[in-house]
């Protein structure tokens, strides 16, 4: 049941497959005779230094993968010097994660019908040293995750919400996760609420869930400090595009005014390279982190991050790119490029 929860997508899972498959249709164009004796993968995200353009995505309920949950994920992030996104739906509290290590942490936020809950979570994150808010904007309702419904998915009580809300919902028609989301998620959230969020925190706000040029431009207009190209791991609306296929559209709209992060389908270092070549400032990794946690705890998460970093380093070397700034659009060819060539 818990594996299905982490691995699954919504409805037919078309977008779930496409998130990974779309990378395979992008070809790398390497350069030769470049001095790659030293490879530098370090960068900054919102001004915070990180060893590589790889960030842990905010995925929910890590204790379903390992008894110690997000605490171990955070320790692995600190050990690897990468930034961690902590989920609003984490099974460890904000305070537990903050006190476990010195990793740079961003906090992911959903807006509930009871706005005071969101405000309290933001305040707790800010008080406990989190450096940014990742506002997820693609979830007015929970996507139809058929495996969870079939399994009658049982989500644990979340300690962050003790005394505030209950996630214990008896619903024989499907998962209690779906029933809880239906009761709590606010489908009225709109662009005007960015101003409300900015009024209650000094932290920079990135919005997660942008897939179109139009929404990227609107996000700039309302003053967000960053954009995350994401389809929620293909867990919300099925048949939306694979995120890598729309990354360049968003990057072109943003024109470098704020950082653009990428989320969805990263499985190896060549995927990271391709996303960077198409304009992402960094990528987020979700499911592989959870699988590493389930297999080997903190060590497993560290191994996943190290594998991706090692693979990216090798890809950069073999492509003639000693630094991240050397990775350009000319290093990849997409299906769109092939179409233009035929024209």
CATH superfamily: Aldolase class I
Fraction in beta strands: 5-15%
How much is the radius of gyration in Å?
19 Å
Which structural class best describes the helix and strand composition? alpha/beta
What are the secondary-structure elements, in order, as H or E?
A: HHEEEEHEHEHEHHHEHEHEHEHEH
pLDDT averaged over residues: 94
Q: Would you count the extended β strands for me?
A: 12
CATH class bucket = Alpha Beta
CATH architecture: Alpha-Beta Barrel
The low-pLDDT segments are: none
Largest sheet: 8 strands, parallel
Give the end-to-end Cα distance, rounded to a whole number of Å: 49 Å
Spatial order of the strands forming the largest sheet: 4-11-10-9-8-7-6-5
CATH topology: TIM Barrel
Shape: globular
């Amino acid at each position: 049941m818990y594996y299905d929860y982490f691995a699954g997508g919504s409805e037919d899972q078309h977008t779930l497959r496409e998130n990974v498959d779309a990378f395979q249709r992008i070809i790398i164009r390497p350069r030769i005779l470049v001095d790659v004796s030293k490879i530098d993968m370090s960068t900054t995200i919102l001004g915070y230094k990180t060893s590589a353009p790889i960030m842990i995505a905010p995925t929910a309920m890590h204790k379903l993968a390992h008894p110690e949950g997000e605490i171990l994920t955070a320790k692995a992030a600190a050990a690897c010097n990468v930034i961690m996104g902590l989920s609003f739906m984490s099974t460890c509290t904000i305070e537990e994660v903050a006190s476990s290590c010195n990793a740079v942490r961003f906090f992911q936020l959903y807006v509930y019908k009871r706005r005071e809950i969101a405000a309290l979570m933001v305040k707790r994150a800010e008080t406990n040293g989190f450096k940014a808010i990742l506002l997820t904007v693609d979830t007015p309702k929970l996507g139809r995750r058929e495996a969870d419904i079939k399994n009658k998915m049982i989500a644990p009580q979340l300690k962050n919400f003790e005394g505030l809300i209950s996630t214990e919902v008896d619903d024989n028609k499907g998962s209690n996760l779906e029933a809880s989301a239906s009761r709590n998620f606010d489908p009225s959230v709109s662009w005007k609420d960015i101003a409300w969020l900015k009024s209650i925190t000094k932290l920079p706000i990135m919005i997660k869930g942008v897939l179109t040029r139009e929404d990227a431009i609107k996000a700039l207009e309302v003053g967000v400090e960053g954009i995350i190209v994401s389809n929620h791991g293909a867990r919300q609306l099925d048949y939306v595009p694979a995120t890598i296929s729309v990354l360049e559209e968003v990057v072109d709209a943003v024109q470098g005014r704020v950082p653009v992060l990428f989320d969805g389908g990263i499985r190896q270092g060549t995927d990271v390279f391709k996303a960077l070549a198409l304009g992402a400032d960094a990528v987020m990794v979700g499911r592989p982190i959870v699988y590493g946690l389930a297999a080997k705890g903190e060590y497993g998460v560290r191994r996943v991050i190290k594998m991706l970093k090692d693979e990216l380093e090798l890809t950069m070397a073999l492509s003639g790119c000693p630094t991240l700034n050397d990775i350009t659009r000319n290093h990849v060819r997409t299906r769109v490029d092939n179409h233009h060539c035929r024209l």
